[in-house]
Amino acid sequence: MKTNRLSRRQFLRLAGAATGSAALAACGSVRSVGSVQPGVTPHKAGQIQLVYQDWRTDWFPPMVQQMLAEFHATHPGIRVFYVPDPENLEEKMLADFQAGTAPDVFQGCCAHFPIWAQRDFALDLRPYVSADLDKATIEDWDPAQYHAFFTRDGRQYALPKYHGALALYYNKDLFDQYRVDYPDGSWTHDDYLRAMKRLTHDRDGDGKTDLWGSMIDVSWDRVQIHVNGWGGHFVDPTDAAKSLMCAPEATAAIDWLRTRIWDDRVMATVPTTQMKGTHEAFINGRVAMIEDGSWALKDILAGAKFRIGVAPFPAGPVRKVTLATTDGFGIFAGTHHPDAAWELLKFLISKEYGRAMARANFLQPARASLVDDWIEAIRKEYPQESKDVDLAAFADGHIKGYSVVAEVFANMEDAKRIADDAWNRVLTFGQAPLDDLKAACIQIQAAQTGAGQGLQGLQ
């Protein structure tokens, strides 16, 4: 398969011969992201060379270079070359995996990481975890997040990178203006709906809504947590090849969202606000509340011109849940240096690396023991903006044990493609009725076990 990236071996030869900036400039699709690899010295004879691929956002390269300097000081026999994720990560990584040119160590999340694992591109970490990680380390992670990194046949393909958790952001100024009580951990979806209705307004009197009560990003895991709150699932917990996406609980939850967006028009989506995403619409005062994660916290604290609040995600009619993201680190199954790659991965999951990410961009640590350090870093950098903000709300699901993660089908690649298309029609753009989901459910089930088998709630 053709690829416009240099192979890992070609990249390493370049990186070992010159400074990191020159090496990256020579690497066709590794685009400039500031000073990406400053001051890299030629590798020593006999050194194991690894490529580590991770985020390309502006804040990440300086942080990772500083941390890798610490790794190199304690691991003189290993030289790590950081490269940023390609812009089209999901497509490019599949091409690199198939061509055998993928990085030795990489990050992934969401629906695409399990797809890579299902196609056997990620090394099984169980022998390394069993040999090197103690019980206390494993118990420091959210069990829901940790166990999400196993395939249905028991292979462990990743370890937690950070713990992105979903909560409810709210604009305190708007709540005060319209005399609505602030949300708290006791809120249900009924409380949530009442507040949305009271906070939705046509502020300029032109007959069109310009302030919405809340907003959701229509995506796999964001829709799923509502389904979980109704007591349902996308995937049968006992059989990853069995769909429950059209069972009554799931359709009731999805219809609740559709009704809020297109009948009541109290909940916004990206097209209605003409914004790029939830936190942009929130910062710009277009919505009073958003369902968003701790990963958006720094942007919101820096950009909002109003007092913000954070509350735990409202409970559904059946259970209280919140999302724990499945951002993790994995090792390429085709690496020539699995033991060295494991040494690097152990460093990436260390408390030191977790604290570095928390300080650099407020990434919520995967380890519960680092939550207080994370909150302290936020309050230190934004003392006024974070004053009276319940930052611990993001860790509530982790600490109290009600987190859920993205549910994964046996054939996740086709399931996600089909579901995304259906939700865009029904939820994002309001172009189709709820019944349109039935055809999608049939297609998803057919992709798992054959048409007509294992369908739930379609009669």
Task: Report on this structure.
The chain has 2 domains: 8-163 and 326-380, D-Maltodextrin-Binding Protein, domain 2 (3-Layer(aba) Sandwich); 166-323 and 411-449, Periplasmic binding protein-like II (D-Maltodextrin-Binding Protein, domain 2, 3-Layer(aba) Sandwich). It contains 21 helices and 14 strands. The chain has helices at 8-17, 20-26, 60-74, 89-99, 112-118, 126-132, 135-140, 143-147, 172-177, 189-199, 220-229, 248-263, 270-273, 278-283, 297-303, 338-348, 351-361, 371-381, 396-400, 412-428, 436-449, and strands at residues 48-54, 78-84, 105-108, 159-160, 166-171, 214-215, 235-236, 239-243, 267-268, 289-293, 308-311, 322-323, 328-331, 403-404. The model is unreliable at 1-9, 11-42 and 451-459 (pLDDT under 50).
